[in-house]
Specification:
- The structure is a homodimer.
- Chain A is α/β, with parallel strands linked by helices.
- The first copy, chain A, has 13 helices and 12 strands.
- In chain A, helix 1 crosses helix 2 (15-23), helix 2 (15-23) crosses helix 3 and helix 8 (159-172) runs parallel beside helix 9 (193-207).
- Strand 2 (91-96) of chain A pairs antiparallel with strand 2 (91-96) of chain B.
- The first copy, chain A, binds a DNA duplex through residues 3-5, 13-17, 19-20, 23, 25-29, 32, 47-48, 50-57, 115.
Chain lengths: 340, 340
DNA sequence: GTGAAAGCGCTAACAT
DNA sequence: ATGTTAGCGCTTTCAC
């Protein structure tokens, strides 16, 4: 618990010199530095970050806000962020903000603003104009992942294109009766991801001349979870006469749930039912799920990278949205529909 | 970005009064308080936590160290911790520490000690004597989850009992050829979890008079992941003549991987092969996996609870290990072995 | 190359 | 009930 002055006294120098020796900034003779470093080691000295922050104004800590911790996509982005941050010597302070607007305000006003963080990474959170302005006013770099936020650099995939891509893939295999198991349209996440995915799905069908739209019963709303996909699929697949030959799942969790349901119903996957996911999770690999490569870890690392520039004294961020390239990762779970 | 003095000036009071009005500590007349609060709102004032920490010595921030973020059990504990912490008005700073000892030292010396946190929650990390002493010296409450650490309160399940439990369950159904798909014995996590689970497994077999031990080929080492379980099972189940009638998986990830492999090999689960997991993840539910109820979220919340006492000025923690009760959650995936 | 001194923004005695 | 004062532990001019 030693303080700088103790270290200084022990080394026989002034606080100023001790500080310089330890931080590496400014001129200190090698011999003095050695003495100071030794004294510090003897005392088990560790600088108080609060004191340092107070005077420098920086905390070496970045705040990460996200609505989910354990959903696959989010967890992987988080891992990417975490790794890159620790690498750069920054702390990561995690804030989960859900639907609760009050809670969200509290996180912003009370935590993020309390000079606790140097920068903010928002994963799947559509920051409001005010939130962005506030952060900018405070000189804090912000980057978003998962959707465009005006005024800050963001990285996202094209959610419309993504379902269009997988749907086209199924269409090209000959599937015509395809159902989208996606998010409830009334309970959108930020960035209206559910809506966009449904849009891409239907755009592909329409372009192929396949009947689509609410009347076509080609969409079933489900929670974005394995259990959600499972239960939705149990109902959807129960009746052999109305059963689709393929499912476009809104995310990998739903896809795995659907596949599990199908197998339990004795439906062969992929022989009798093809399922495609979106997020490209490790599990997708095992299930042979065709998904969309979207590099969550890399997105996380890239976000940190983007933020480190300005923090390191570089030029401010260029507030451009960046589209993360996506492509199909085709595995064995998609096959042509069974002959009728 | 206003400071307390600006708020004070605007409200026509002293810094001290402004501080009292805002923090709620000490006597302030209602009218003065109102004026101060209004002034603060006008200025968009937010207290500097660095300054407050410097003088009070507390940060309202707790450090969470864990080796994994996305492994199911750890992610759920983390969610429990996160929820309880935010509830109590604390920040959560996340540190992942893997096998790298240097990295681990760095986290401890450089981050945790830098007066950045008021308390530490260690999930699945066996803190060393020195680490614990250091934390105690600094007056920081520490609690562990996942294994006993001398000198601090910990919550853990009984890893030996857990595999014994599930194994006995399989034995009681009549299974005799059972294989444990568990962690590599040379690459233990902290707390030797892999070893303990193998031990419990073999103890149950031995007690039932079933041949066990290395010679009995009743253990296959695999990474603690879905992919790990999958690949191990693909090999294990390939030959119908040596195929077991049941598998005790070291964790739910392995179990799901094994089930998936079995299904792909055309083996009926649970008719021809019973699989039991350990962690009781959401996915286990869907797969009908029999697992051990161990309440990860509750463990996380309890850890926070335990830490909040001392932080709130209460008596210090009683450094007793606490055994989290576990029980079997039997689902449909375990059945008697198929008749030969 | 090193030291003296000022001050970051706040809280906590202590006095009034 | 409110104001005055003294730091918390560090970094950073500015002299020397």
């Amino acid at each position: 618990m030693g303080s700088l002055s103790e270290v200084a006294r022990r080394a026989g120098v002034s606080k100023a010199t001790a500080s310089r020796a330890l931080s590496g900034a400014g001129y200190v003779s090698d011999t003095t530095r050695a003495r100071v470093v030794e004294a510090a080691a003897d005392l088990g000295y560790v600088a108080s970050s609060a004191a340092a922050s107070l005077v420098t104004g920086s905390t070496r800590n970045v705040g990460v806000v996200t609505p989910y911790i354990s959903r696959w996509f989010f967890a992987e982005v988080l891992e990417g962020v975490e790794g890159a941050l620790i690498e750069a010597g920054y702390d990561l302070t995690l804030y989960r903000i859900g639907d609760d607007a009050t809670q969200r305000r509290r996180v912003f006003d009370y935590f993020l603003m309390r000079k606790r963080v140097d920068a903010v990474i928002a994963i799947g959170v559509a920051l409001s104009r005010e939130e962005v302005d506030l952060l900018h006013l405070l000189g804090k770099p912000v980057v978003g992942i998962g959707g465009d936020v005006p005024g800050i650099p963001t990285m996202r995939i094209d959610d419309v294109a993504v379902t269009r891509l997988v749907t086209e893939h199924l269409l090209s295999l000959g599937h015509r009766r395809i159902v989208h198991l996606g998010g409830e349209q009334d309970e959108q996440m930020d960035f209206r991801v559910h809506g966009k995915r449904l849009e891409g799905f239907r755009a592909a069908l329409a372009a192929a001349g396949v009947p689509t739209g609410d009347a076509a019963d080609d969409f079933v709303a489900t929670p974005f979870s394995v259990a959600g996909g499972y239960h939705a699929a149990i109902h959807l697949l129960a009746d052999p006469r109305t059963r689709p030959s393929a499912i476009v799942a809104g995310c990998d969790e739903i896809a795995i749930g659907a596949i599990t349901a199908a197998r339990q119903l004795g439906i062969q996957v992929p022989a009798q039912l093809s399922v495609v996911g979106i997020d490209d999770h490790e599990l997708a690999e095992i299930f042979g799920l065709t998904t969309v490569r979207q590099s969550p870890r890399e997105q996380g690392a890239a976000a940190v990278e983007a933020i480190l520039g300005p923090l390191g004294g570089g030029r401010p961020l260029d507030a451009r949205p960046r589209l993360i390239p996506t492509s199909l990762r085709v595995r064995t779970s998609t096959t042509a529909p069974a002959a009728e």
